[in-house]
Amino acid sequence: MLLYDWGKPHFAFLDMERTPKMGRPAAHDDAFAAPPDAHAGPVDTETLAAHAQKLSQLNAWFEIALNNMARGLSMFDAERRLIVCNALYREIYGLPEELTLPGTPFSRILAYHAANEGAANTIEELRRQQLWIEHHAQELTHGRTFTHTQYLKNGRVILVTNQPLADGGWVDIQEDITERTLADERIGWLARHCPLTEIANRFHICEKLQTEIDRLKPGGCLAVHIVDLDHFKHVNDTLGHAAGDAVLKAVAKRISAIVRDTDFVGRLGGDEFAIVQTDITSPEQAAGLARRLVATLNAPYRVLGSSAGIGASIGIAVAPEHGLSADALLRKADMALSRVKGCGRGSSCIYRPDDEAMASERVVIEGDLRAAIERRQLALVYQPILDVEAGVVTGCEALLRWHHPTLGSISPSTFVPIAERSGSILEIGAWVLHRACHDAVGWSAPINVAVNFSAVQFAHGDLAALVAHELVSSGLDPARLEIEISEAALLRADPRTFEAMEKLRALGVRLVLDDFGTGFACLDYLRTFIFDKIKIDRAFIGGMAERRDSMAIVGAAAGLAKALDIGPVAEGIEGLAQLNGVRETGCRQVQGFYFCRPVPSDEVEAAVAQCLAKLEADTAAA
Ligand code: C2E
Ligand code: MG
Ligand code: MG
Questions:
Q1: Which of 402, 432, 452 has the most ligand 1 atoms within 8 A of CB, as the residue to mutate?
Q2: Which terminus of the chain is more solvent-facing, meaning fewer CB atoms within 10 Å of its CB: N or C?
Q3: Is residue 547, in this structure, part of any structural domain at all?
């Protein structure tokens, strides 16, 4: 081995045969060194001693350098015998001292390492090792540097680089790349998984779905389910994001526990999950799994010391029937999911071709809605609200109408949610407010006007400033303006909604809680925020005659409102029996087709008169 002698520009020769310990060049051995100049005649002992000392110093440095390298190093000669190795090399392979002595055959080191890693002591194994050595040697003989990665059973990952030496031997460099490999693996894992729930992400689901579609045998069938959690936002809003995260994890676990090992579960994002259900013979099997999932996900969740209730809606698409691409199947499962949500959530549906029509209608509506204001297709109608005890009409609720040129009259229950999703509700809502304020100042009687506001309007922009502006521009008394916000919207509200409500109250307008009873009984907000009125949802009024529970709910809601000193209003009164029923519960404010259907602004006066006449007639009859 050649070592550079720092003292003079010549090389010292390290005699391997005589090196006392392999892997550690001799610290001092004057016999290692060739005479400084063989032809220069006799050398005095002082020069030799000085030379030996220098060499010994040099070897000591070499040893320090070798053993402090961040990489393992070993060097072999042309006969495939060890020349030198460092401490890290020894440590990586756990080599005993005797296998690090100079001259140790590479094959012995390899056999020891293989046995250490659990290889069998068989002829085949030895043959395999020999082949590997031949391959190794061949690469090196061709002067090629090559690398390979070793995965040790202790978990370490070692990158080995073999470099040929000029005299036919080679140098092995061992780099411990365990951490780098783990980081790479983590990055690779993250590219395909959701770190929170530790299940597949959208990318991985699409990939898997396509693979399974491509693998379908003739007559085979698979299903993709999109699971959307109902009221998940409510958990986040009321219990905090940590609880929301815990619910998502629990959902992932519940889904994974219920599906078969061959099925594939992932999170599409937000509160949406997907399942690729393979190896089924009919769509009915998919429907069965979906029913079980809905039931399982419905059970209460215990998170961070609280109990959380959510539900699940599921849309299903089946291959090959509904398509043979991952994109098409997911899109169709999503359309089926929209139908489930439209039908009140908490169940599952398999895709039907008319879902497509509904989805494209949604797209048409969304596009046309933007231009509806400009094209003057929107209009407001007004429905009177009466105080039956006082015998007066207290106000009218403004209700939006859209006359679509080809689709005809579209209900606000259909287009308002679409406008909320696309954001056009902001522009539409501003128009409604403007129109309602200006219409109301034109009415002969100074009755109130109630305007429905969407939660989206509360969450964006300065709603109070907009209301203040319309009050000033129309000259409407703020006390005549009532703003209705639905209970469901309130549950989806964020802190900005409550700030906006405070500001509105400061302007002197009234706040009404609409559709009370539909928003999943969390009555806490009734303490947080005082409303001027609570409107009991018409679904309960409608059921009063036939269902005792509806009657009980109306009674309880009216009682609650009165206890909180808030005026209850019963909406959707269609008949005398319902009117008498709500009056019995102590609810004196009512609204409904029984008295009057919504009418255009210029018919409000006549509508008010009609309501009063009806009330008088009823009273006289009673
Ligand atoms: P809502 O605020 O609860 O309005 C009352 C709904 O009940 C109206 O439906 C009204 O026509 C209907 N209604 C009134 N009396 C009866 C009755 O006796 N029987 C029955 N079956 N229904 C009755 P409409 O006009 O279709 O509005 C539906 C919903 O659309 C409204 O429910 C409200 O949430 C929303 N909406 C309407 N106009 C607007 C608006 O300008 N802005 C916003 N953001 N939402 C609006
Ligand atoms: Mg309303
Ligand atoms: Mg309502």
A1: 452
A2: C
A3: yes
The answer, yes or no, to whether residue 244 has pLDDT greater than 90, is: yes
Q: Quick one: 92 and 116 in the same domain?
A: yes
pTM for the full predicted model: 0.59
Number of domains comprising the chain: 3
Closest CA to 277 of 298, 255, 247: 255
CATH of the domain at 208: 3.30.70.270
Give the β-pairing of 82-85 and 72-76: antiparallel
Q: Given pLDDT bands bounded at 50, 70 and 90, which one contains residue 343? A: low
- Nearest atom of ligand 1 to the alpha carbon of 515: 3
Going by C-alpha positions, the residue among 211, 431, 246 that lies closest to residue 325 is: 211
Reported as a single tens digit per residue, the pLDDT across 36-90 is: 454 555 668 888 888 888 888 888 888 888 888 899 999 999 999 999 999 999 9
Instruction: Based on DSSP, count helices (H) and strands (E) in the chain, helices before strands.
Output: 22, 24
Tokens of 138: 């061949």
Pocket (CB within 6 angstroms of ligand 1): 383, 399-400, 411-413, 416, 429, 432, 452-454, 484, 486, 514-515, 538, 571-574, 591-593, 598
Residue 358 in domain = no
- Among the bound ligands, the one closest to the CA of 382: 1
Same domain, 39 and 164: yes
Cross-strand partners of 410:
402
270 CA from centroid of ligand 3 (Å): 29
The residue out of 132, 159, 182 marking a domain boundary is 182
**Is residue 299, in this structure, part of any structural domain at all?**
yes
CATH number reported for the structural domain that contains residue 554 in this entry: 3.20.20.450
Q: Answer yes or no: do 371 and 503 share one domain.
A: yes
Ligand positioned closest to the Cα atom of 582: 1
> What residue owns the CA closest to ligand 1's atom 17?
572
C-alpha span between 168 and 153 (Å, rounded): 32
State in Å: Cα 486 to ligand 2 middle.
7
My answer on whether 376 and 337 are in the same domain is: no
Q: Tell whether 168 and 283 lie within a shared domain.
A: no
**pLDDT attached to residue 367:** 87
Among candidate residues 325, 352, 379, the one where a domain is terminated: 352
Quote the distance between the C-alpha of residue 513 and its chain's center: 32
Domain of residue 132 covers 2-182
The confidence score (pLDDT) of residue 27 equals 37
**Tokens 């080679």, residue located:** 170
In this structure, are 105 and 246 located in the same domain? no
* pLDDT of 41: 55
Cβ < 5 A residues, ion ligand 2: 452, 484, 514
- Residue whose CA is at the smallest distance from ligand 1 atom 46: 452
| Angle in degrees, CA 424, 426, 427, rounded to 5 | 75
How many Cβ atoms are within 10 Å of 5's Cβ, its own excluded? 17
Q: Which residue has the higher pLDDT, 319 or 145?
A: 319
Ligand 1 centre distance from Cα of residue 573 (Å): 13
